[in-house]
Amino acid sequence: MHSSLTAGSLFPKLMVTDLEESTIELGKISANADWKMVVVYRGKHCPLCTKYLNLLETYKEKIEANGVEIVAVSADSKEQLQEHLSALEVSFPLYYGLTIEQMQSLGLYISNPRSEKETDHQFAEPGLFVINDKGQVQVIDISNGPLARPEIGILAAGLEFIKSPENNYPIRGTYQ
């Protein structure tokens, strides 16, 4: 059974690890920003994820200039993330070790590897969460496969519009 994190809800408290073995709260916004974008990617085995993360880097300056920090996380091991760095050209923080329970709390689709050649563990399908200054999920995008993800240029421009005070843009999709 699949359940989703809902728009407007508080982003769950999830702890993840970086390559220096530092543990951080994934949804906590740093002092350098007032919003946060959390990108969940499938892992090093996914060439579309590598391409997406590298493309996201080209929009990083525009997104961060708007007060939104970017982080990315996968279920890969530390070793897999270290190997993946050779194909990644990103300067935003990367985290590893997302657990099944954490994936479920985010409402992500979870897949089994097609073979040992692909990867050695279950992994999350793509998800993207934008957390506002109140800790709420302002924007959410969850996919069940690597082919459907938000177009980053449209997302960057949309975040600029949403964050502009004169637009007074609410969290969308909250009708119950």
Mean pLDDT: 95
Largest sheet: 5 strands, mixed
Distance between the termini: 20 Å
Which percent bin holds the helix content?
Answer: 25-40%
Please report the number of helical segments. Answer: 4
Strand order of the largest sheet: 5-4-3-8-9
CATH architecture type = 3-Layer(aba) Sandwich
Query: Gyration radius, to the nearest Å?
Result: 15 Å
CATH class: Alpha Beta
CATH topology-level name: Glutaredoxin
Strand content: 15-25%
Element-by-element helix/strand order: EEEHEHEHEEEEH
Strand tally is 9
Give the class from helix and strand content and strand pairing. Answer: alpha/beta
What can you tell me about this protein's structure?
It contains four helices and nine strands. With 176 residues, the chain is α/β, with parallel strands linked by helices. The chain has one domain: 3-Layer(aba) Sandwich (Glutaredoxin), CATH 3.40.30.
